[in-house]
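Researcher: Following up on the earlier apo prediction. This time include the ligand. It's flavin mononucleotide, with the SMILES given after the sequence.
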Amino acid sequence: MKNSFGNSITLTLFGESHGTSIGAVIDGLSPGISVDYEAISRYLSLRRPDGETSTGRVEKDEFVIESGVFNGYTTGTPICIRIPNQNTQSGDYTEIKNKARPGHADYTAYCKYHGFEDCRGGGHFSGRLTAAIVAAGGILIPALEKKHILIGSHILSLGGISDRNFENYGEDIKGLNNEKFPVFDKTAGEQMKDEIKKAKAEGDSIGGILQTAIFNLPAGVGEPWFDSLEGLISHAVFSVGGVKGIEFGTGFGLAKMKGSEANDKFRIDEKGKIHTLTNHSGGINGGISNGMPVVFNCVIKPTSSVYKVQQTVDFIKGQNCDIEIKGRHDPCILPRARVVIDSLTALVICDLLAGRYGTDYLKP
Ligand SMILES: Cc1cc2nc3c(=O)[nH]c(=O)nc-3n(C[C@H](O)[C@H](O)[C@H](O)COP(=O)(O)O)c2cc1C
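Model: Understood. Below is the ligand-bound prediction.
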């Protein structure tokens, strides 16, 4: 569906990095879900650049809800959220207009849109569009929280420095969602920031791994074969520019284990609740949640727009050339992308719950 995702609840994205605005349309949400403008602003602020480890393009994200919300609640009709672009410097892109930034979507966009694409600031492929995803998340994440389902991400590793894994999921997620730089280990966090600043000072960029958890998701959610829980989360997460890999639970580490080690053994606790002793499968069996926390890691590449001279092509002239990028770019995408991943995860979960139990499921 190109720019739309979801079945029962859909999210449609529109806009370009340097156009008048970007935005999202959310359709299929039940009426009566509370919409808190401050919560949306808070999520947007988690994605906003901090000036230190991110791009110099700071947008105020003064969003407007054009439709679908009345007296602070969803009406059940499409919600259109529009976010004006206010801080563009399109001149930065004039000189490199026909030169493909290595690792970015300039060349592939040209192949697909035949030169009619808006190339300013990466156009429709810009990370700027993820603000609209986060604004939607500002409605969806709190709606799930009212059902006690919590979602949060932290930077698991960056520049060879590692954070600890999730331990106490409820507390960990609540803590993360108040942190601009999402890590549990503050010392590791400072070292990661130093690595980002070092890359930035060298005109370079750095990538890493984000780890996301969904806590309190009931067992039984997921629609195999093709709309398995892993499949839908992966589909949504791979829509985010810069994401290049995903693993659930122990993921690629399972390749080194025996079945007897990898199997998550089932037990019943004193309250009669079924759980597993380990969580190598990341809370999913057969594409369906098993009631354990759903845990996945995604690798985000180093930002492609770096300030070192690079070899490329001028795809209009059909010539080899060099490129020197001058615009404003994130030296690392991870600190800003985490709330984008959370928002898309919330969309997948809302959609699956609405599909299985009806769209009114999310109504408090
Ligand atoms: C929050 C966020 C911010 C981003 N910032 C930049 C940036 O400043 N410069 C850049 O070249 N790419 C940035 N990206 C990544 C590009 O959008 C992405 O690399 C591009 O669309 C190509 O997609 P691909 O890397 O998945 O192939 C950002 C992505 C996200 C999610």
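Model: The CA atoms of residues 156 and 163 lie 5 Å apart.
Researcher: Noted. I'll compare it with the apo version next.
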